[in-house]
Q: What sequence folds into this?
């Protein structure tokens, strides 16, 4: 059976275009057809202009020298500036807003040959108030948020990869709910120039994809790093099973995802240690709201002054809570978070990575709420790289990801481990 | 002798306006008169519209409830977004660029009652290529950069305070050259929402002022922190004299600034320890260029793609150097910098703050170069708070500041120490 071009990975697309097997235009057309067919149900796009996408594809085809991601269609979360597409932040306040210059990530993707397919739906200002997107596996369920459209578009084969951002759980949660790979690099890895902030001490740019090769390929373009596949592991890794204090909050599906994945890793030769996080890490759950709300109030100061009433009630409450939080209380929360970060590396002692739930459970039914961020936000606060892999399907048929966590800046070793895990566990 | 209103501190202005001693309009008019008189020589402003300033002042006067900085004229570095004034970044690429929304810092200043006087001249994208500003103490000399206009405007009594940013030495150096106080808070203290980045791991928003009270007052507005003056020291502090490995690069004027200041502190009862920085800190000087150039190339990706040839030759070289630097080389530099940051606190052992040169010497003659950033950039890389105080005047009559450094996030204790130092040493 011939796989449609829109279902190929970014790596396969770039290879096929460079080798002349098919054109960028044909790939883009296949994605456009898929969007035409499914968008009414999925609602992944905040802005989509097929002509603009085709124009880019044709200029990739015409170029003598092809970039490393020549002709790869990419979805861009709609809080990221694009100079030829409006950038709406999921808010009426920025309706039809047209940035002057591409964000760094967009400029780098373009320079490497990407076709920017359009802007994907984001929750309002990358927060909690959902947009129109549904879960491609079941339109009665949330796709998760805030990178809702990016996750849904990649899951539904509308584009092989998409950019997302995570401040709490906005990459990992929707990726897990939609059954794809979501990668949040170490804090500070990818430039945030041109990305609307949510909470400046936490905001991280990352990726949604259906293949680990694609994550590495797109990263090489974003980082302007020579593209080479991470070498595989030379021995099975030692897994640090990290249930966290939130384990009992997890639904059976999420516990089953971790447990069945662990069994398969053991069967493949992995060592296992069960890890307890230091006690003070539990406080991170308590101070997260303090940090989030106060930093949110800070970045929204201009919007608050100009258009408070155009913000959702939920976002207004968040900002107000931030405004009501004293600076000293905030600073105490920051100290605690920094103390935990400094202690993070030693929690890995004796194991190569942590295996931990990605989400509370399968994507909840309903489109208003986007699910709980607690299992993702912990790691965002710790600035460590995390990836979710689709290794499990619940009895309902819904995907439930697991989460792999590595020490700060050990992004490459996380990638090698993820490759091993996915080979062993792919469903 | 009556002091003109434009020569008052922000604290005196806010007090006078709240108590009805004079109007915001009168203060703004006094600053406008000063600008009219001196701007042709000093060239501090990239955008200045007296009517717009007066309009703000009149609405402060009309308001029943006055903010904590009611009627205080503030200069805004022209890489910071303002929704009612163009924001030019010191570059032809952004000529007449009009942002949609105020940066967080501007919104908070306005909410607290400030009068935004205008946009102050910045070096091109807060880098090294100078604008039109001269040193108010001697128009044949550079004011320093990149916050050239902010420093000159405050020094020349055109406004009591101004916002600046520092990535290498862009607050401390021009403040020192212009004989005013410059304060770079701990990294991450003030929101950068709406501030054009230069190098994201280093960029810090800070202040230029003529009084320590003003620094604390403006900070309280920016941080939405209750305004209370930091209590004074209960005992004379222990000074860590930190000549650094660059001491021999310093001109006699800069060494004299440190030495005479130290003598006066000793006379006032301060203890003194001479401190050696750990050897690996010297490498920071070597890796600074790597980090700066690569991060600069990153944040400028969109501008590079759209208008490379509108950038100065100097900036083009910097970006090109960044593009030619491998990711691995960059990451090694980041590791080294983070290692030094982690070791920084222990270098303070036994002393309350570091006393160190602020600059290589007095402001160099000529307007093309803005002076060497080496004595400032070290501390920027370490993320620690630093302040320059005008405690010395060279035989030429030019001011030469000294620099005080405190541990990360010890900004408040730095302020208390600076207050003690300035009381003992004011010239």
A:
């Amino acid at each position: 059976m011939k796989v449609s071009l829109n279902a190929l990975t970014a790596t396969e697309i770039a290879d096929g275009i460079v080798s002349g097997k098919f054109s960028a235009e044909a790939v883009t057309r296949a994605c456009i057809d898929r969007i035409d067919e499914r968008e009414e149900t999925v609602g992944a796009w905040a802005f989509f202009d097929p002509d603009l996408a085709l124009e880019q594809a044709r200029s990739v085809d015409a170029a003598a020298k092809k970039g490393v991601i020549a002709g790869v269609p990419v979805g861009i979360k709609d809080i990221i500036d694009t100079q030829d597409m409006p950038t709406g932040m999921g808010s009426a306040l920025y309706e039809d807003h047209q940035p002057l210059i591409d964000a760094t990530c967009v400029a780098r993707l373009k320079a490497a040959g990407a076709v920017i397919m359009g802007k994907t739906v984001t929750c309002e200002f990358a927060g909690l108030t959902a947009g129109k997107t549904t879960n491609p596996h079941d339109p009665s369920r949330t796709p998760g948020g805030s990178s809702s459209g990016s996750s849904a578009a990649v899951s539904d084969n509308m584009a092989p990869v998409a950019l997302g951002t995570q401040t709490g759980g906005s990459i990992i949660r929707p990726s897990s709910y939609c059954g794809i790979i979501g990668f949040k690099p170490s804090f500070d890895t990818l430039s945030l120039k041109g990305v609307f902030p949510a909470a400046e001490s936490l905001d991280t740019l990352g990726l949604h994809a259906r293949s680990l090769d694609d994550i590495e390929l797109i990263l090489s373009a974003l980082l302007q790093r020579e593209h080479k596949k991470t070498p595989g592991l030379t021995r099975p890794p030692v897994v640090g099973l990290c249930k966290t204090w939130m384990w009992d909050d997890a639904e059976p599906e999420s516990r089953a995802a971790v447990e069945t994945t662990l069994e398969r890793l053991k069967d493949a030769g992995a060592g296992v240690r069960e890890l307890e996080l230091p006690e003070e890490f539990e406080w991170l759950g308590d101070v997260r709201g303090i940090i989030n709300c106060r930093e949110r109030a800070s970045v929204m100061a201009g919007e608050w002054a100009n258009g408070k009433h155009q913000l959702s009630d939920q976002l207004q409450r968040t900002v107000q809570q931030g405004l009501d939080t004293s600076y000293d209380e905030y600073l105490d929360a920051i100290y605690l978070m920094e103390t935990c970060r400094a202690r993070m590396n030693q929690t890995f002692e004796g194991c190569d990575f942590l295996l931990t739930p990605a989400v509370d459970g399968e994507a909840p039914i309903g489109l208003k709420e986007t699910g709980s961020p607690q299992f993702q936000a912990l790691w965002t606060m710790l600035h460590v790289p995390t990836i979710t892999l689709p290794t499990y399907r619940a009895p309902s048929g819904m995907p439930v990801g697991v989460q792999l966590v590595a020490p700060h800046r050990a992004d490459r070793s996380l990638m090698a481990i993820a490759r091993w895990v996915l080979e062993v566990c792919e469903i």
